[in-house]
Structures are given as C-alpha cells and as structure tokens.
Give the backbone structure.
Amino acid sequence: MFIRLTPEQIPRLWDAIKFAVLQIDDISKGDQALYLNRLLHALLSSKAWCIVRMDKDRKLLGISILRILDNDITGERTVFIECLYSFAHAHIDIWKEVLDLTIKYAKKEKCSKITAYSSNPRIFELAGELGFSERYRYLEMEI
C-alpha cells in the first residue's frame, strides 16, 4: 500500500526519510545538515511530498520524495522525483505502480513531465524499463 504522509506524520518517520535520502542523494558530509533542514522544512510545509510504501503489517518498504517544479520561462510544471528508495528488492511491477501513482499526481497538479536525476546505474536501467528517456547528462568539475 502507498501512503502520502501528512506534515504531522513526517516527524514519526524522519529517521527513515533521512536514511533514504542520504543513501540516494550524493550530499557531502559538510552539506548534509543544511540539506536535511531544508528538506524537513519543505516536507512540513507541503512544498515536498513524502510517499511511503508499506506492507499489510505496516512495515516500511520504500520512500519517495516528490516536488513540483515550475519553469519560470516556459510556465511548464514538472513533478521532480527527488528520492526513490526501497528498503527491500522491489519487482518491476511495484515500480510500475509507483510510476502510475506519480503520473496521476502529475496530472492532478497539471504537470506535463516527470523528471529525476541519479548517478545510480540501477536507476538508469529501471527508468529505461519504465519508459523514461535520457534528456541530457549533468557534468561537473571540482575547482
């Protein structure tokens, strides 16, 4: 089952949310406190949504963090998948169900795209299986 957490429910699962996002997002140690503070603020103010997947015994199986991004130039709205984490192996059918729910959410919010980025090869493979296409590559150089 999938549940969208209300802001009031976020503190109860905050440790699991922190764990998931720090596993997924490549945040340097020095930036983690600020990143987590800003994420917590966004979740508590409903600027970001946390969707959890639980089994019938209410055991936590997965966490997703979604945000709506507005393009100031084109006016286009996008659902950005900030985090997608599974505590246990999930079959492709589960990921299809996650995508279907995200599409419903995107349509409800009048979004025209769903976007995400990752450095994880498994996510690239999974995204391809689910119908995502690569739009560009993000490159960086430390100076």
